Amino acid sequence: MTDSSKPSLIAIVQMTATSNKADNFAVTKEKIEEASSLGAKVVFLPEACDYIADSHAQSLELAENMDGTLIKNYSELAVQNRIWISIGGFHNKSSSIDKMFNTHVLINSDGQIAGRYDKTHLFDVEIPEKKIKLKESDYIEKGGSIASPVESPVGKIGLGICYDVRFPEFSLSLARMGADIITYPSAFTVATGLAHWESILRARAIETQCFVVAAAQTGIHNSKRSSYGHAMVIDPWGTVIAQCREGTSLALAAIDLEYLRKVRREMPVFTHRRQDVYQLPTCGVLPVSPLPPDEATFNFGQVTIKGWAVFYQSRHSLAFVNRKCVVPGHVLVMPLKASRRIPDMQPDELSDLFLTSQIVQRGMELFHGVSSSNVAVQDGPDAGQSIQHVHVHILPRRPKDFKENDQVYDELNNHDKGPNVEWRQEEEMKREATELRLFFAKL
């Protein structure tokens, strides 16, 4: 999707949102149309571009959900202007009556939702002696995961929101997941903005070697709240390449992916990281979508796994149905990269493998209506490994499925060995994989 041979234009928006949703939308509509007319492929709006309310109660009252009027209106604008729109944070109704999500939504030029992210880090500060109390958690429900970077016309976009910028683990995780651009749409307070805004944005750009895009709220929203502004774009070397002027405004920046690659090539910090000394924290497992086509193939030791057998895939691992089951629902999880034994694996691959196995175990137990499993790795030939590629066995267990419980290990050791093994039929395996794909897609 991205033509990396030449720079692509993006636009960042700075605005002063109030509790008047119609007025706020009119401002963003004007800026989106301006960005499109200037040739921008993506326009980035700030956090709370839908509204900044006068009270928590009003904020809850004004909130919408993902299929509400606001998202529909922005989808129409994206199509009309042939531009991608980053809604940097809107008040998204949750199942709770007294809380909502702060959700960053990325809409493509066809009006479809290309990505979404619920803010994970909530700004809670209470300093009684200064009469300061700011607690997002009083009315915002925290998100539970980092969203996979989204392929766009300007590169892979990683979605963040405001306070996330203070957590380098967050940005490093997005960079490891392939982000070219990391976004921090914000409504920074004036005090923290004066002290930290530019410094912290530049730090995130330098350490990740990504473009950092930070649309921003500015000015006085109501009698209790003001924002710092200074919306800006920073390149992978840490240089500010665009910044909005005071007040409601728009700025353009060129995203040059060739320059990004040059920076990473000449300062290869990610290849210099000492994973043997320290490890970057895992960012959890994110399913890969769509799953591989039926005709795809994956090397699994001395055999080949067909795409139709795969029912769950993460960045480094995949889960697939088994040719020979010890118990009903016996499935396998393997790393995509060929590794004969666990000591051969890199830390991020190993973490991904076992986090994926945890997800698959939970899903298989739900699918089969059981509450116990055997999770096993036969690591090396003397441990019973028959396929020379690390893999995890997930075996959902039922009451008294073996006369002696530990018989399962004898069966696991011998179930696929010998001249008289009765392998499952392909059609049976395909039916199981199809059912599991549908089930795991809803988890």
From TrEMBL:
<dbReference type="Pfam" id="PF01230">
    <property type="entry name" value="HIT"/>
</dbReference>
<dbReference type="GO" id="GO:0006139">
    <property type="term" value="P:nucleobase-containing compound metabolic process"/>
</dbReference>
<dbReference type="InterPro" id="IPR003010">
    <property type="entry name" value="C-N_Hydrolase"/>
</dbReference>
<dbReference type="GO" id="GO:0016811">
    <property type="term" value="F:hydrolase activity, acting on carbon-nitrogen (but not peptide) bonds, in linear amides"/>
</dbReference>
<dbReference type="Pfam" id="PF00795">
    <property type="entry name" value="CN_hydrolase"/>
</dbReference>
<dbReference type="InterPro" id="IPR036265">
    <property type="entry name" value="HIT-like_sf"/>
</dbReference>
<feature type="active site" description="Tele-AMP-histidine intermediate">
    <location>
        <position position="391"/>
    </location>
</feature>
<dbReference type="InterPro" id="IPR019808">
    <property type="entry name" value="Histidine_triad_CS"/>
</dbReference>
<feature type="site" description="Important for induction of apoptosis">
    <location>
        <position position="409"/>
    </location>
</feature>
<comment type="similarity">
    <text>In the N-terminal section; belongs to the UPF0012 family.</text>
</comment>
<feature type="binding site">
    <location>
        <position position="378"/>
    </location>
    <ligand>
        <name>substrate</name>
    </ligand>
</feature>
<dbReference type="InterPro" id="IPR045254">
    <property type="entry name" value="Nit1/2_C-N_Hydrolase"/>
</dbReference>
<protein>
    <recommendedName>
        <fullName>Nitrilase and fragile histidine triad fusion protein NitFhit</fullName>
        <ecNumber>3.6.1.29</ecNumber>
    </recommendedName>
</protein>
<feature type="domain" description="CN hydrolase">
    <location>
        <begin position="8"/>
        <end position="257"/>
    </location>
</feature>
<feature type="domain" description="HIT">
    <location>
        <begin position="296"/>
        <end position="404"/>
    </location>
</feature>
<comment type="subunit">
    <text>Homotetramer.</text>
</comment>
<feature type="short sequence motif" description="Histidine triad motif">
    <location>
        <begin position="389"/>
        <end position="393"/>
    </location>
</feature>
<dbReference type="InterPro" id="IPR036526">
    <property type="entry name" value="C-N_Hydrolase_sf"/>
</dbReference>
<keyword id="KW-0547">Nucleotide-binding</keyword>
<keyword id="KW-0511">Multifunctional enzyme</keyword>
<dbReference type="GO" id="GO:0047710">
    <property type="term" value="F:bis(5'-adenosyl)-triphosphatase activity"/>
</dbReference>
<comment type="function">
    <text>Cleaves A-5'-PPP-5'A to yield AMP and ADP.</text>
</comment>
<dbReference type="InterPro" id="IPR001110">
    <property type="entry name" value="UPF0012_CS"/>
</dbReference>
<dbReference type="InterPro" id="IPR039383">
    <property type="entry name" value="FHIT"/>
</dbReference>
<feature type="binding site">
    <location>
        <position position="393"/>
    </location>
    <ligand>
        <name>substrate</name>
    </ligand>
</feature>
<keyword id="KW-0378">Hydrolase</keyword>
<dbReference type="GO" id="GO:0000166">
    <property type="term" value="F:nucleotide binding"/>
</dbReference>
<dbReference type="InterPro" id="IPR011146">
    <property type="entry name" value="HIT-like"/>
</dbReference>
<feature type="binding site">
    <location>
        <position position="322"/>
    </location>
    <ligand>
        <name>substrate</name>
    </ligand>
</feature>
